[in-house]
Design a protein that fits this description.
alpha+beta, Beta Polymerase, domain 2, 20% strand, binds ligand 0O2
Length: 215
């Protein structure tokens, strides 16, 4: 079924949504840079969920084929990385204020971390997309997390893959400790946020001067 050519047609508008969202979020990042302000957005990346993962998720959550579009909300997924935890909430606010898509759900796994230790902020949106058959509204997921949260989530994701979702208890316990260490790191960085930002601003100015002089 994963080779079914209909998947290509089904996923094409999702690819478009991912690309449009990346452009919009990078556009926000650039505006902060132009105005020489700290950008809450450090980087943006996106992907369309592979067909095999869509099928696995549908099976695991007992979702019928005709409900996939509505019930699997991360077929179009974009990830935004930030330096500081409060940047996450700034971005969520920016997303809520947009008129070109609608926020339909928010999941705060920072205030309510997952059992695994996972922390991240998920914003589910409904995004319009123009196709040759007319307009469609597609669901997409924007995951917003700090660099520290991402470091943890990436490693945990690899381990989950390696152990097919059955991570041994001892490793799971270590992962939980690592999640708390990452969270403490975010807390410590928040305390010196102003210092870090000032240092980055000075460095940015220096780089721009050197660039202008052609050094
Ligand atoms: P992939 O490979 O990242 O695309 P769920 O029932 O929890 O599986 P649901 O209901 O869609 O999923 O919602 P949720 O939990 O808000 O979002 C799912 C996505 O969040 C996951 O996608 C992961 O990207 C991420 N995520 C959620 N929990 C964890 C976790 O414990 N560890 C890590 N590393 N990531 C997590 P997929 O489909 O699982 O996979």
């Amino acid at each position: 079924m994963a080779d079914n050519p209909n998947w290509k047609t089904f996923l094409a508008p999702y690819r478009q949504v991912v690309e449009e969202l990346i452009v919009k979020l990078r556009g926000m990042q650039l505006q902060y840079e132009i105005e020489s302000k700290h950008s809450p957005i450090e980087s943006v990346a996106g992907r369309v969920k592979p067909v095999s993962s869509i099928l696995d998720k549908a099976k695991r959550k007992q979702i019928a084929a005709e409900d996939i579009e509505e019930k699997i909300q991360d077929i179009a997924g974009v990830r935004v990385l930030c330096q500081f935890v409060d940047d996450i909430y700034t971005i969520a606010e920016l997303l809520r204020s947009r008129h070109d898509f609608e926020v339909i759900e928010e999941k705060d796994y920072i205030r309510n971390k997952k059992e695994s230790g996972y922390r991240s902020y998920h914003v589910i949106i409904r995004h319009p997309v123009a196709t040759i058959h007319g307009y469609k509204q597609l669901i997409a997921e924007i995951q917003i997390r700090t660099l520290a949260m991402n470091f943890w989530a990436t490693n945990e994701h690899s381990l989950n893959y390696k152990y097919s979702g059955e991570i041994p208890d001892a490793i799971q316990a270590r992962l939980k400790k690592a999640a708390e260490a990452a969270f403490r790191l975010d807390g410590e960085m928040a305390k010196i946020k102003d210092e870090v930002q000032e240092a980055q601003w000075i460095f940015h100015q220096l780089k721009s001067q050197q660039h202008r002089k052609g050094e």
